[in-house]
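Homework help thread (please don't just give me the answer)

Our assignment gives two proteins as sequence + C-alpha cell strings and asks us to describe the second one. The first is just a warm-up. Here they are:
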Amino acid sequence: MSRQPYLSAVNERVIVFDGAFGTFVQDLDLGPDDFGGASLEGCNEYLCITRPDVIRQMHSAFLDVGVDVLETASFGSFSTVLSEYNISDKAYELNVEAARLARETANDYEASGKARYVAGSIGPGTKLPSLGHIRFAELRDAYIEQARGLIVGGADLFLIETCMDLLQIKAAMIACRRAMVAEGREIPIQVQVTMETTGRMLVGSEVGAALTAISAMKPDVFGINCATGPAEMQEHLRYLSQNASMPISVLPNAGLPSIVDGRTHYDLTPAELAKFHHHHVNDLGIGIVGGCCGTTPAHLKAVVDAVSGMAAPKRTPIVEPSVASIYSSVPMVQDKSFLIIGERTNTNGSKAFRDAMIAGDWDNCSKIATEQIREGAHVLDVCVDYVGRDGAIDMDEIASRFATQASVPLVLDSTEPQVLEAGLMHIGGRAILNSANLEDGEEVGCRMDRVFSLAREYGCAVICLLIDEKGQARDVEWKLEIAHRIHRIAVDRYGLSASDLIFDALTFPLSTGDDDLRLDAKHTIDAIKRIKDEIPGCFTTLGVSNVSFGLKPSSRHALNSVFLHECVQAGLDSAIVHAGKIVPLSRMPEEHKQVCLDLIYDRRTKDYDPLKKLLEIFADVNVVETVREDRTDWTVEQLLKQRIIDGDREGLTVDLDLAMTQGLAPLAIVNDVLLDGMKVVGELFGSGQMQLPFVLQSAETMKTAVAYLEPHMEKTGESSAKGVLVLATVKGDVHDIGKNLVDIICTNNGYEVHNLGIKIPITEMIQKVKEVKADALGMSGLLVKSTLIMRENLLEMNNTGVSEVPVILGGAALTRTFVEKDLREVYDGRVFYGRDAFEGLHTLDKLMAMKKSGIDDPELGRIPSGRVLPKRTGSADKPAVEIPSRSPDVIDDNQVFKPPFLGSKIVKGISLDDIAQYVNETALYRNQWQYRPEKDESDEDFKSRLRATFRQELSTAKSAGFLIPQVVYGYYCVNADGNDVVVWSDESRSTELTRFSYPRQSEAPFMCIADFFRTFDKGPDYAAFHIVTMGEAVSVEAARLFASNKYQKYMIIHGLGVEMAEALAELWHKRIREEWGFVNEDGPSIGGLFRQQYRGGRYSWGYPACPDLEDNATVATLLEAGRLGIEVSEETGWQYQPEQTTSAIICHHPQSKYFVAR
C-alpha cells in the first residue's frame, strides 16, 4: 500500500506509539543462550540477531491492540554503548536488522489499510557530553552510523528519546541529518526529553531551556518520555502545550516504580494511563501518545480504545524568541530591561580575562564570567581571539567550562568559524554567534555562508553586522540595504527566520570631532528604528561603548548611558555593555545628560560644540570607583582593622603574617585589632550606615582571620573568649535565621557561642547553660505561641534555681514592653529584649564589663520598664452585643464556581523562572536580604540594582539544584456550619472528611472565614486547599553555608528559599483561579496580586483570621502532604518541615479578603 507520510498522519489524527521494549523482554525470562552467551546477556538489542522471533513477537503484540507506531529494538545500538559488550563493530548491522524486523512486521498489519509506522529508536547511551564523559564529535559520529542503519532498514522516522542532556540531543540530530544526506532519504525527527522527579533533566535543564535549545534545531515533533509516570509530567506538558510550535508527544512510564518480590513493578493501570492520555489530547492538545517503561500491550489497548481515531488536536501556542543556557531559557525581549550582553569575557576588551586565559587560569576566567552575571548580564559575550594563539583550542577550554559553570546563555564571538564551532560542540543551550556580515560577499565558503550554516546546524541566533563588500555602512539607507539583503539570504538560502537574526547597526566614535562622523550616532538610532519596523520579528544589538571610544572613563560612562537610553527608546533589544558601568539617567545631572544628547544628535551652533563642552565638564571628574584611598603609610594594625570594616579578605593572610612578624601576638591581634574593627561595624550598622549583608561580609572576614591565627596562639587551656552564650529557638518553633544571625555577630565579636538549634526544650537549655558555665542564655522564636513558651521557660528557670543566668529574648512576635515590663515581673533574674543581633551583642558587652569590673548593677535587666499601654477595650467595657452565626454583611447568593476536579493532585517540575515572576521584590530585597536604597536612590532604581543579584542567585540555584518546587493541592465540596467549614468526601455531602474552625469578629461586621461558604441548606459549595514547598534541599544548603562561615551567602540563600516558596504560593493561587474559571477578574499586574486584586482570598494558618496553627496538620492530612515528604506535628510546633513550605485555604467568594478576627 502507499503509506501516508508520518507527519501528514500526525496533522490529521491522534497517533499512538507502542509500549515498553525492556518490560516485554524481562517478562519472558530469557537466559544467556538467548542473547548469544553470558557476555552478551542483558544486551536486549542483540536479540535482533539472536532471537528475531522475540522481537517480532513483541511488535505483533502491540500491533494486535491497534497502535500506529512501532519503536525499533535499537535503543542502545550504537558503538559507545555496544563497546561495553565488545560488539561496537555490530552497530550498523543491529540497526539495519532492528528497523527491518519492525518494518516487515508492520507491513503484515497494513493489509487492513491502516498505515503502521516504524520509529528508529535512538537512546542517550551511557556517556553524556555535557558532563565530560565523551567528546561531542565522537558521540555524533557514533550516532551517524546508527542513523544510517535505521534508514537502510526502513525506518519512517527517527525517535531520539529518553534524552538527559541537550548536547547529546544536538549530536544525535546533527548525526541524523548527516545520515539522511549520506543515504539520500529524508525522514522526520522526533525528539523526546526525560524530566526527572526533580523537575529537570539529569544535567539540570528546565523544560523551557530544552524547548528553546532544541526547537531552534527544528525537530518535527518534540515531547517527553520515561523517568516518571504521567502525573509527574503534567507541568512540563502544560508548558509545552502553551509554548511548543511543533506537534507534541508524551510516552510516560506506567507510574513511578516500586519493588515487588524483588522485581521492578509499575503501579499505573491501563485504565489510568488511558485516562491521562485522554486528558493530554482533549485538554492539552497533544496528538502523539504512547508508553515507556512498564507499559504493556494491555496498557496500549486501553489507550487505543480511548483516543484512537480522534482528530489531531489544535493549539495556539505563544512562541517567545529566546536563547538558553543548559539550565534555563532567557527571552530576547526583557520586561524591565534590554537584554544585557556582558562584555568582559572578551580578550579584546578585558585585559584581566586575556591574561587569565593566556596563563591557563581557567578558574579566574570562570570567576570573571560569574562577576558579570552578578552585575546584571543576561548573556555573556565570549571571545578568545588573540594573535599568535590557536583560537579553537582556547575556545574548547573556555566553552567546556562556561557551558555548565556559567548559568546564562553565551554569545560565541570570533572572526573564525572553526573557533565558533569549537565552542558549539560544548553548548547544550541555545547560543548566539557573533557574527556574520557581507564583507567578503555571499558565495559558498565565505564567512557568512559558514556562520549561517553553523547557525542552521546547531540552532543558533546570529548577530549580523551591517557591513558589505564596500565597508561598514554609515548612513541610514546603506544600513537598511545591508540589513534587508542579509535577511533575504538568511531566510531563503539557510532556512533561518527573522527571529534568529540580531542586527548590529554599528556606530563610530563621536570623540574624534571629525565632521564626517558627527551624525553617526544619530544614524545608528534611526537605523535601529527602521530595522525594527521593516523586518518584523528580528532583533537589534549594539556594542555601546564604541560611541565613546577615546574619552576618559567618567565621560565615557555618561555618554554610553545616554546613548544606550536613546537606542532603547528607538527599539534596541540588546546591548554589549559592562552592566556595572551604566548610570541610571535619573541619577545623572541634567547638564551632563543634555550635553550628551546634544553630542549624539549633533546640535552644534556657532558658539556651542557639545563635544568640547563634554570634555570641559569632565575635565576634573574622576570615576568614583577608580579612586582608592592611599594606605601606603598605614600601620598593619590600621590595615587589619579596615579589612574587617570593609569585609576585605583578599590578601588578608599576608597582613596577618606581617603583624605577627612585627611582634604582635595572635591573641592581641584578635582582641585589640580585629574586634576593634567589628566594634566599628556594629556602630555603622546601628547608625544605619552599613547594611546587614555587608555586616555579614565583615563577620566572614573576622572568622577567616581568627581561623588563620588560631594555630599560632599559645595553648593555655583557658578560653580566650569574652564570654559564653547559649542560644536556642524555643520548643515548637522551627525558625532560626534570627538566632543564627546573633550567633554570627556574637561569635565574631569574641564570644563563645553554643547554638543548640531549633525546637529546644528548656531542660536542654538549662543543661547546656550549666555544662558550659554560660554567662547568658538567648532564646529565639517567631511565633506568637513562642512568646508564651518563653514565659513558661523563665518560670521553669526560677523553679530550677538558675535565675542568676541573664536571659536575652528575641523574635518577630516579641515587643520591648512585653519583655522589659511583663517578663521582668515574672523572672527572678535579668532579662533583656534583643531587637537585633547587635542589641544582643551590646547587652552581652554590658554584662561582661560588669562581671570583669566586679561592680554589680543590681537594677540592670531587672527593673520593669517600657511603655504602659492602655488596656485594649474589652467586652466588659462595652454593652453586650449578640454575635450572629453569620455576618449579615456577607452575601450568600454569589455565583458558586464548580472546580475542575474533586480530591487532590501532586504537581512537580514547576519552572523556577515562572515562580520567580511572582517574587515580592520588596519582601526579598529589604526584609530577607536586608538591603536598603543608597542615598537618593529611587525604589525602582534600588530594585533594578538588586535584580541582578536575584538573577545570579536564582541561576546558581538552578545549576546546583537545591530549589525543588512541589505542590499538593485539591478542590473539595464544603459547607459552612456556624464558624466551621465542613469538608465533605464528595458532592453527596453524606460523609464529613474534616472541619476547620475559625474565629469570628466580636464586633461588626462579625466576619468569619466560614461566612464565605454556603450553608448546607443552600446547596454544595467548594473550597481549594494547597501546600507548596521549595523542598528540603534549600534548608540543607543554607545549613551548609552557615556551618562553612559563609554568612552573607547563608542569608541570601535562606531568604531566596523563603520568598520563592511565597512566590510559588502566589503562582499556584493564580493557577487555581485559572482552573476554577475566574482568573479574568484578576488585576492587570503581578504587583496588584500582592494587594489582592483578584476574586476571592487565600488564607494561611497563623494569620489573624485563621490563627490556629494546628490546622496546618489538618490540611496536610486532607491533602496527604506526606507524599511530598512534608511533616507537621506538635513536635514541629504545627509548622511545616521543610521550613520553606506554606499552605492555604482558597475561597472563591468575591468578599473574601484579609481581615482581623478579634
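The one we have to describe:
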Amino acid sequence: EKSLHERDRVGVQDSVLLDDYTNEKTFLENLRKRFKENIIYTYIGHVLVSVNPYRQLPIYGKDTIAVYQKTHLIENPPHVFAITEAAYRTLVEEHYDQCILISGESGSGKTEASKKVLEYIATVSDNKGQVQTVKDKLLQSNPVLEAFGNAKTTRNDNSSRFGKYMDIEFNALGNPIGGNILNYLLEKSRVVHQNNGERNFHIFYQVLLGTENDVLSKLHLTRNPEDYNYISHAEHCTENIDDAKQMTEVCKAMKTLGLSIKEQGEIMAIIASVLHLGNIGVVEEKGRAVLNNTSHLKYAAELLGCTEKELHLSLTQRTILARGETVSSPLDRETAIYARDALAKAIYDRLFSWLVNRFNKSLQPEQKTNNNVMGILDIYGFEIFQKNSFEQFCINYCNEKLQQLFIELTLKSEQEEYLKEGIEWEPVEYFNNNIIINLIEEKHKGIIALLDEECLRPGDTSDTTFLEKMSDNLAAHRHFISYQKAETKMKKMMGREEFTLVHYAGDVIYNVHGFLDKNNDLLFRDLREVMSKTTNSITRSVFPKSELESKKRPDTAITQFKNSLTQLMNILVSKSPSYIRCIKPNDFKQPGSFNDTLISHQVKYLGLMENLRVRRAGFAYRRNYAEFLKRYKSLCPRTWPSYNGSAKYGVAELVKHLDYKPEEFRMGNTKLFIRHAKTLFSTEDAFQVRKNELACLIQSHWKGYVQRKKYQQMRHAAITIQKWTRRYMAQKEYQRRKQAVQIIRNFIKGFITRTGPPTDLNRKFIQTAKQQYLLRLAKSLPKSLLDKSWPTPPLVCNEASRILQELYRNGLARKYRLALTPERKKQLELKVLAEKLFKGKKKNYPQSIPLPFAEDRLTDAQNLIKKPFFTTEAASGDVILYGCNVIKFDRHGYKRRNRVLFISRKHFYLAMEGDKQFKIKHKIPFETVNKLEVTSERDNFLLIRIPPQLTKDKGDVILEVPHLIEVITKIVSIINNPNLLNINTVNDGKICHSLINGKEFAIDLTLGTNGPGISKGKSGQLIVVG
C-alpha cells in the first residue's frame, strides 16, 4: 500500500489491483510505467514478474538485503529478495519444503534471477565452518555450469542452453548444508553447429584464450578459434565476454567444488578432443569414407586415451550384431560425418552430466537426515521461433506441464485460503491445458507414443512417415492441425513438412525435419565400445561397459525427457512453490527500450493474463486485520489513535465508517477481503489526505515537546554549571587567599631578616625587592631625554640602577639622534657650537637657547632684490649662506649706517640696500680676519679686526648685530675656527680698534641702567653699555 498514492506515475506494485485487469494493454502499461522508473519488479499476487533492464541497477547490495530480511512479502516493494525471503522464512519457521520456479525466454534474466536467489540465501544464513564451505560450493557451481552449459545467442550473450533444477538442503537453523542439481535437455547439437551470430558453448573459447601456454601445448591447441571447425564459423569475438578472465574463475570454482588436478586435466583433455574431432576431415573413395587431417585424429585419440587405430576404425565402419554374428560394414562419407558429430555431441553431453553428478557428490551433506529443501528451477520459457524443431517441441511440452502445475497449485492455494477464512468458494473458469498435455503424452495415442513407435519399428521410417502417422491418428483433435486439415490462411504459413499445435500460449508451427534422428540420439556401438576402454577416467565412466552388455534398447530422447519431467513434477508438487516470471523487453539488449509487441508475446507465452484472471476471480485484495487496521485506523474516530478491542472488530468499525458496500468486501476469520481495487484506492487516497493532517498535528506536538525538552535540558544544564562554577570559584578564592597569606608571612620574615645571615626567606625577599624595583622602574621610565628623573632604588640595586640609567639615557639619546631630520640636526649642531662658544661667557646666551637659528634674517623686500647680487657672487665661485641687517659705525665720528651683512663660504659682505639691488661697501675675506671681538654683556657689539694692509676697508669694522650669537655661531661653523672669537669683559674697561693710518681708538665698556646699547659719549668716544 505504501506506493498506491503514486500509482499514476509508477503504476501499482501488484497487478491484481488493476481495475481493468482482463485488458492486456492495461497490464502492459503498468509494466511500462514501472520499467521507465527503473522499477523492474511487479507482483501478480505472489508471482513476481521481472523485466530485464539490461544494465546494472543499485538494488542488490547488502543494504537492500538487510531491508528485506525477516519481513513479510507485502511490507516492501516487489523484489526477487522478497520472494526468496518469503520462501526461506516459511522453510525455516514452518519446516515446509519450498521451490522457486524461474521461467522466461532466452535473454529475459532467468540465470541472473537464480544467482540473486542464491546470493540472498548465502547472505542471510550463517557464515561458519561447513555452512560457509557449502555456500561457496553452491555459488561456485554457477561459473562452471555457465561455462559448459551457456552460449552466446542472437538474443542473449549468456544464454542457458539447458534446464536446471537445484535443491538446497537446510538444517534446522536454516543454514545450507548440502545440495543437489538436476539438468534437463542440454542443447548438444550446438557442439557441432551454431546459427549465424551465435557461438558454441563458452568453455571452448575459454580454454583457447584463458589456458596457460604449456597446458595449451599439451592439448595440441592454438590460441586462434578460427583453426577449429566446430567454432570457426561462429562469432567468437564478443565485447561483453572476457573469456580469459572467465577461465580463471572456472578453474577457481572447480577447485572450490573439490575437483582434483587430475580431474581438471581430464576435463580439459575432453574439451580439446572435441575440437580435434571437428577437424577430422572425411572424403569418400569408392563409396567408403576415408579420414584426412590424421594429426587431429591422433591428438583426439591421445587426449581421450585410446589408440589412433581404434578411433579410426570406429569412425569409418559400423559393427552390427545379428543373430549372434558380428558383421562390420564400412560407412559412407555422410554416415561417417554423422558418426563423428554424434561422438562429439555424446562426449560433451555426458561430460556435462558427469560434472553435474560430480558437483552433487561434492554437495552431499555429511549426515543424511530429514532436512528441509528449497528448490530453484531455472528452465527455458515457452518458445516460438521462425523454425521450430524437436527442441522447441520438448521445451513447450515442459512449459505446458509447468502451466498445468501452476494453475492447479494457484487454484488449490486460493481454495485453501477461502476455506481457512470461512469464505464461500466461487468456482473460477480457466483454460485447462490438460487436453494439450494428453495430446502430447497420452499412452499409445499421444505424439510422444507415435514418435517412439516410428523410431522403433522396423522398415523404412522417416520424418515424413511420422508426420503422416500423426495426421492419420490425430486429425480429429482440435489442438492438432496438419497441413491437410489447416484452413487456407494457415496453409499459407505452413509447409508440407510441418504441423501445428494449439498451445495454451498460442499456435506453434513445428517442422518435422530431424525429429526421428534427434529422438533416436543414435551413437554407433563401435564408438561406445572404444570410449568404454579409454584411459581417460571420465570418458570411461560416462561410457560404461554395462551399456554395451545390456540387451535392452535405450530409451529415446523424448521418453527420457518425459520421465525426467514427470520426476520434476513430482518434486515440485511436494513443495510449496514461488514463481518468478522473467520478461525480455527488447531483442537488441538495449537499456530503457520497451517493445510492446515482444512483451505481449511473452505475457501470452508465460500465461500471465491467465494467472492474473485466476487470482482476481474472487477478491483483488486481502490483508490481515491487524495490518489493515494499523495502516488505516486514522480514518475512523473510533479506531484512532488506538483500538482496545480485537483487530477484526476494529476493521469492522473502520469499513462501516468508510461506507463499504456489502458486496465490496468479506470478513474472513483472520483477513479482510476486498473485491475491487478501486475500493482500496479510494481508501488509500483518503489515507494520504489524512496522513498530511496527522503529519501537521504530529509536527506541532513534536516541536513543542522538543522545545520543552530543550528548555528543560538547558535550564538543568545552566543550574548545574552555576553550581559547579560557584564551587570552583570558591575553591580558587580559598587557595588564592591561603597562598597570599603564606606569601605575605614569608615576605615579612624575609624583610625582618634581610640584613642577617642568608636564608631562603631573605634571599627570596631580596630577589622580590629587585624584581619589584625593576617592575616599578619599567612603569616609570622617563619618556624624554630632558627628563632626568629616576626612581630611587633599594640599597641592593644601587649599582644596577646606575648602569641601567646610563644605558637607558644612551638609548634615548640614540633614539632621539636617529629620529632627527638633516635640518634639525644642523640646527642642533649650531646650538651645540653656540653653547661651546658662549655658555658662561656671555650673559644673554641663555635667552638665545630656545630660539632656533634662522636661515637668514632678510626682509621680504630684501629677498626680492638679492638674486642679482647672489648670482654675481656665485659666478665668481662664491655662495652666499646667510644674510641679516646690521648697523655699521663709521671710524670717524661713529655715525650709524644701516647695512646688510652677508656671509658666504669665503667672505663677509657689507652691502647698502638700494631700490633694485644691493651695493657692496665692504668685502672681507675670512682668511684676513684676525679676531671677532664681542663683550660678555647683553649688548650686540661686534668688532671685526682686519689687517692694516687692507687699505680699502680703512681699518677694523664696528657693527651692532641684532642676532649676535646666531651670526657669530654661523661664522665660526663656516670658517671652523672657534679661536677667532674673543669675548671681552667689563673689567677690561675698553676695546681698541685700529684705523688705516695706524691710529688706535678706544671703545669704552661699562654697565648701566640704560643698557644694553651702543652710543657716542660726550667726549666723542664710542660707549658700549652692557
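TA reply:
I won't write it for you, but here's a hint about the kind of observation we're looking for: The chain has a mean pLDDT of 87.
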